[in-house]
Amino acid sequence: MQKSKAYIQHFGRVIDATGKFKHVMAIALDPTKEYKEGIIRCITSREGDVEVSGYVDRSEIYKIKGDLEAGYSITERLAMAGSDPIIGSLSKSGLDFIGLEDPDIFVDPASGLMHVYFTFPFLDKKKKHALVHLGHAVGKDLDSLEMTMPILMADPKTFEGAKEVSIAPQNSLGSRFNLCESSKKEKDFTYSTVRVAIAEDMGKPWRFGDTVFHPKEHGIPWIGGHASPGPLLPRSFIDIGEHKLLGIINGREANKRVGDKIKYGIFSVGLFIYDYEKGKIEWVSPEPLIRDTEAVTITFASQFVETKPGEGVLFAHVDDSFVRAYTLYSDGLKALLP
Fold first, then answer.
1. Which of 42, 49, 103, 205 has its CA 20 to 30 A from that of 58?
2. How far apart are CA 160 and CA 185, in angstroms?
3. For the segment 156-173, what is each residue's pLDDT rounded down to a tens digit?
4. pLDDT, tens digit, 9 for 90 and up, residues 255-310
C-alpha cells in the first residue's frame, strides 16, 4: 500500500482477550520505558448487551509488557497506594463502585513525574444513573503510584462527569485546555460530549470548561450519538499550524429506540482539529477514518506512538475483545483535512 494512504491496518493483534479476561480495552503505553510497558483495562464481568443501553461492566486496570512489533501480554494488576480510603470515601450510600476504567499516562516534562488518569465510575442504584469521576494517581513510575482524590468530580445533580482524557500542550498562560468525554441529557437521549478540562497543575484539581462538541448539534452521522476524544497527534508527526493539533476522535452513531430499549450504533475512529490556545474544536471529519475489518460494533482508539518521520502507530480496541495497531501516514492524513 502506498504511503499516500492515510493508514494501513496491521494483520495481527497487539493484545487478545485470553485467559481469565474475555474483554480488554483502552491500552496506554509508558513513554519512559520506550513503550515496552503500559496498562490496560480488563473487564472482570459483564451484565447485559454492549449494544444496548443499561449494560454494566466491572473492570480492573492491569500492567502489560511487550513491544510495538511482537505485541503485549497482560501481567499483574496495577497497584496504587492509598486507593482503599479514597474509594471508601466516594462510595456513599446507594452507590456501587464498579472498578477503574480507561487509563491514560502523562509524564510531566518539567517534574518527570508520571500521572495516570482513569475513569472512576459509581452506579446510582436508586436512580439508575452513573457518577463518573476522572481519577488520578501520581508517582515516579507505574510501580510507585499513589492515588489522589479525582481530578474532576461528576456533578451529582446533572450526572455530567468526565472520562477519556486527552492531554493538550500548555497555552500562552501556562495552563492546559485538556479535553475529556462528558455527557448531556436531552429530551430524546443522553449524549456523550467533548468538554474542555482546564488544568493549571496536572496533579491538582482541574475545572470544567465549555462543551466543545455535542453530537446532536453537528449532524455528522458517524458521530451522531456519542463523541470521545482520543490522542492528540504531536506536531513532530503532523504540523497543521500554530496552536493547532490534529487529533483522533471516537464517535458512535446515534442511538435508536427499539421497543422499550435504547440500541447503540457503531463506534468508529475519526479526526478532529483542536485549537489548544483557545480551547476550540474547529473541525470534525465528515466521515470516519478507521473501522476495523473485524469490528462488529466497536473500533475505539486510545494510544498513538510516533515511530519515524511521517509515520506512527495508533492502537484501538475492537469490540472490547482485542487491541489492534494501525500505521498512520501524515501525508495521507493531510489530504483528508479541510
1. 205
2. 8
3. 889 899 999 999 999 999
4. 999 888 899 999 999 999 999 999 999 999 999 999 999 999 999 999 999 999 99
Q: What is the pTM of this model?
A: 0.96
267/228 Cα distance (integer angstroms): 10
CA distances from 239 to 34, 172, 270, 285, 336 (A): 23, 18, 18, 17, 14
Q: Are 4 and 314 in contact (CB under 8 A)?
A: no
